[in-house]
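Suppose you are handed a protein chain with no further information: no name, no annotation, nothing but its sequence. What can you learn? This example shows the usual starting point.
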Amino acid sequence: MVSDGMVLQREMPLRIWGFGSPGEKVTVKFDGETAGGVTADDGKWIVELSPKKAGGPYTMDIDGINHIWLKNIMVGEVWFCSGQYNMQLPMGHVREQYAELIAHAGDVPVRQFYIGEHYDYKGPRNNVAGGHWETADTNSVLTFSALGYLFARQIYDHYHCAVGLINACVGDAPAEAWLSPDALRQFPEYASAATRYADSVFPEGAGPADRTATGGLFNGMVAPADLYTVRGILWWQGEANVSKAGDYTAIFPLVIQDWRRHWVANEMPFLYVQLEAHGPVQEQRGESAWADLREAQRMALTLPGTGMAVSADLDADGKLQPKDYEEIARRLMVSAEGVAYGKKDIIFSGPLYESMKAHGDKVHILFTDAGNGLVVKDGGELKGFAIAGPDNKFVPAKAETDGKKVIVWSDQVPHPVAVRYGWADNPYGVNLYNRDLLFKDGLPAPPFAGRVKEKKKPADEDQQH
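A reasonable first move is to predict its three-dimensional structure. Written in structure tokens, the prediction is:
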């Protein structure tokens, strides 16, 4: 990864590393700075350079027993892109939709390092199995992550610097495959499976028929990159965990914390896409494993430095590939401005469910991140709500907003106890948004489920019981 054409992260300390003979003295010269280190007993050396401003192209001299000269280096913004199929999907698969951008790809300085699929069950690898930095042009951009590239264009439009993408995706990988051996100890069942593979006779870089088994992808594709200084993580994953959405509530936050620990960045920005629509549009009244998974993703927003882009409202077909990747990239960029770039006075999330109370046969729902008020996108009827009484049987509900709260009710439920919003495999048509600072439609509220707060009993009543 430390090679010709790389993009280094601006305005952050930079780690440069390589391999040599134990005890070998190494000197790195870059942009007027010289830093030195000594190769450890395991053959690895690391030096740290001070933060640099965006610019380039630069060269880098590395001196040890031999001399290495790296060229065409840029300093700008670097993001690590990981997850499943929708993050992996290359621009070539959407070439008709984005033909104009592809035709002018060479106008914008975006580069990608593709980490090929590689699993290792023996332990974390020190180096990637191969690859090189590639500069986007009309032909090469067809292999770039579509979402990553569209996000990179957004960054360039805002900050006018080179953008580097590190692409490490596996189409059908569950979240637990991306956990380190240390983190897996919190899940004995998964840790046991990882141990069985580690103790097997599989050669390095190979493994069981299930190449996405627990732990292997972290060792093979994340561990080799965690010394590379990045601004943050872009993540789109979850389809492989739908059948175990309950586990995801714990696994996904652990992925975030685990990766931050390995990058030695406690609040490294972690931006992710909430699960897309699946299947035909449905009435939002029944149970949905896809909705359960989205709820687990929403709950991860309690971790600092996280941002989430809603995608389930964008596709009426539910074919697991949203049509509007550019809109998802825009939503991620809004999150990035608030979470990663510290932009003030910006609404970088849709309305987030906070609490609900019953007022007779109606439920009043409050939200954070409401911006300049709650609105129904494009006007009309507020859609996507369902309500239940003590029997927990949900029925479609009527809903309206006064700009500060949402009021939900149904004539079939005189004593409401719970409300859901967008609770379906495909909740296309949900339309609760906030207003941004310019009083334009901001961002959509993510699907959620909540229960009415129970009224506290008087203290003397408790004593009587």
